[in-house]
Specification:
Elements (H helix, E strand, L loop, with lengths): L16 H4 L11 E2 L11 H13 L9 H15 L8 E4 L2 H12 L5 E4 L6 H8 L3 E4 L3 E3 L2 E3 L2 H10 L2 E7 L11 H13 L3 E5 L26 E5 L2 H4 L7 E4 L3 H13 L7 H13 L1 H25 L4 E3 L6 E5 L7 H11 L2 E2 L1 E2 L10 E5 L4 H15 L1
Parallel strand pairs: 1-13, 3-4, 3-7, 7-8, 8-9
Antiparallel strand pairs: 2-10, 5-6, 9-10, 11-12, 12-15, 14-15
Helix pairs in contact: 2-10, 3-10, 4-5, 4-9, 6-7, 11-13
């Protein structure tokens, strides 16, 4: 490989949320962190070069994007996802959870119902409830090691709870599903029939494994453009979360105006300069780096799969179709949530994401981030094996 993903980079004492806040988050100081969706790899060289140039300029004033920024973003989604976006659709935000919050405030009122599909990325639940909306859960169904959508429950709850907004996670975090065009079409048709708007979080779309294809929700049926807010970002793909840049596409002018009014109401305008330039550099220069990264992640996944099969057979891998976050089933151990926490955190000295935070359906599971050097992954699994022996 041209890029060295085996390199160990010491991130301690850099104010890293992943490495420097264990004690503040209630964990022992010596845990090995594989929790938050933050990769331990140096990002693509073109991004670093642009960030260095920006830093050396020494002037960090107000910044916005021009046509070249849109061209870079549009080319990425055209080439990878056969999606032709228009300049007027684009709204830049500091993050996707922020965008979901703006959508909730713009398209619903206090007390309205918002649907999610647990076990799902836990900020969805938080941002719905903290905005005073009613949380409705269309729980995913685990069947023969693969999660499926309960479509009858999906539509029944939309009708019964008078759902106004559906927050879709596609690809799904943490269960790793890459929804088929047929699944997306069925959900979209139900939402269309009942006047439900859809916010689709597609931040993990660049990480899809062989035999799967990511479909942008609004491309599955032209009619879906009128009900969609499509949330994208380079942050997971190129590890830029700290630079706070997301690209939100809203084809429907009425929805877009409502979204922009809400952003104005909270006082937000321009994204930051380095994030803006990093995104453009990523999409213009990062393709080769990404292809090598995906190969390395596939090998990490193979390593975990084989290790569990050979040495930790009671822990079951929910085979991911996408993302670099894997979902492990510990239920065969027969432990309570408290006992599982003691095993993972205090005996194995690992900091993972407990499945319980993703909803009740996640109890007995753990989410683990495999976007790290293989030696780190090996150490984590060895710690777990020793703790279980």
């Amino acid at each position: 490989m041209k890029y060295n993903f085996d390199e160990i980079i010491d991130r301690k004492h850099t104010d890293s949320l992943k490495y420097d806040f264990a004690v503040e988050r209630g964990k022992p100081a010596d845990v090995l962190p594989l929790w938050v969706a933050d990769m331990d790899f140096r990002t693509a060289p073109g991004i670093i070069e642009r960030a260095v140039a920006d830093a050396q300029l020494g002037i960090y004033g107000y910044t916005d994007s021009k046509e070249d920024y849109f061209r870079a973003v549009a080319a990425w989604y055209r080439d990878y996802f056969e999606w032709n976006v228009k300049p007027e659709w684009l709204v830049k935000t500091p993050g996707i959870v922020f965008a979901i919050g703006m959508a909730i405030q713009a398209l619903t009122k206090e007390g309205d119902s918002v649907m999610i599909q647990q076990p799902v990325y836990y900020p969805f639940r938080i941002v719905v409830r903290d905005n005073g909306r009613k949380l409705v859960n269309n729980e995913l169904v685990l069947k023969d090691g693969r999660y499926e959508i309960d479509f009858e429950d999906f539509e029944e709850k939309i009708v019964r709870e008078d759902v106004k907004l559906f927050v879709l996670c596609s690809p799904h975090n943490p269960v790793g599903r890459v929804w088929t065009a047929q699944e997306l079409k069925r959900m979209g048709d139900i939402c269309l029939a009942h006047g439900v708007k859809v916010v689709s979080d597609e931040i993990h779309s660049d990480f899809v494994y062989e035999g799967r294809k990511h479909h942008v929700f609004s491309t599955v049926d032209p009619a879906f453009e009128d009900i969609s807010i499509i949330c994208t970002a380079p942050s997971k793909t190129f590890n830029l979360a700290g630079l706070q840049i997301s690209n939100i596409f809203i084809p429907n002018e009425q929805i877009r105006r409502a979204f922009l009014r809400q952003m104005s109401a909270v006082g937000y305008s321009q994204v930051n300069m380095i994030g803006l330039h990093a995104c453009r550099a990523a999409y213009e220069t990062g393709r080769g780096w990404l292809e090598e990264l995906k190969q390395y992640l596939r090998e990490n996944l193979d390593f975990v799969r084989n290790y569990l099969k050979e040495r930790l057979p009671r822990i079951k891998l929910i085979e991911p179709e996408g993302t670099y976050l894997i979902w492990l089933d510990f239920r065969e151990l027969g432990l309570t949530e408290e006992q599982l926490e003691r095993l993972i955190v205090h005996k194995a000295k690992l900091w993972l994401d407990s499945g319980a935070i993703f909803g009740k359906a996640g109890e007995g599971f753990e989410r683990i981030n495999i976007a790290c050097p293989r030696t780190v992954l090996k150490e984590a699994l060895e710690r777990l094996e020793k703790a279980m022996s």
